[in-house]
Amino acid sequence: MDAGAIVVLKRAALALCVALFACAPVVPTSVLAFSLPGTDDASHAIWDAHGATVLVFYADHCPCLTAHRDRLAAIAREFEPRGVRFYLVDSEVSATLARDAAEVRERGYAFPLLIDHGARLAKLLGAEYATYTVVLDSSGRVLYHGGIDDERHHLTSHPTEYLREALEDVTAGRPVRRPRADVLGCSLETW
Predict the structure, then answer these.
(1) Is the pLDDT reported for residue 9 higher than 70?
(2) How far apart, in whole angstroms, are the C-alpha atoms of residue 93 and residue 107?
(3) Which pLDDT score is estimated for 1?
(4) Are strands 133-136 and 53-58 parallel, antiparallel or unpaired?
């Protein structure tokens, strides 16, 4: 493939990343007891009665998710010691444990990737795009849903960090100041 074709493909992929919600999806206030298989060969309840849970919807083809990898890892390192659990969730039709386990190893994620066969969890939570993030409290209520931050690339050193703000509020016992934010990510292939 020549350099011109690569540039065209990269531009097309980035155009797909600009997927801003025009209106907030309907998100349930409580999530049913879901248990999903993970790339660590364990089954995981998606929320924990002892602390908050962060779910980040995943697509291996999304450059926006790749751009957020380091920021997401830094947030996890900061908040896991405070009792927050992190999971990536793959709801795409092509999801397999073997492929996703290889992705976790290759990309260096420090938390498991869960397989959401049939996109049941994605549909329940209104996840349509990679990087769509949900924060659940210890009772399974949705406290935050939206993007990780307001950038799809590292264009500035100080993005508006939606997820970090939400987790600061949750771990301090305060109401989340911004319970919803726009998402920058590629459409999930759930059909």
Answers:
(1) no
(2) 21
(3) 58
(4) antiparallel
CB atoms within 10 A of CB 38: 21
Helix (H) or strand (E) holding 101: helix 97-107
H/E stretch holding 142 reads strand 142-146
* Amino acid 109: pLDDT: 87
Residue 22 sits at φ, ψ, to 5 deg, of -75, -30
Q: pLDDT confidence of 107, banded at 50, 70, 90?
A: confident
Q: Which helix (H) or strand (E) holds 76?
A: helix 63-79
Residues facing 129 on adjacent strands: 187
CATH of 3-171 among 3.40.1390.10, 2.40.30.10, 3.40.30.10, 2.30.130.10: 3.40.30.10
Delimit the domains of the chain by residue range. 3-171
d(C-alpha 136, C-alpha 56), whole Å: 11
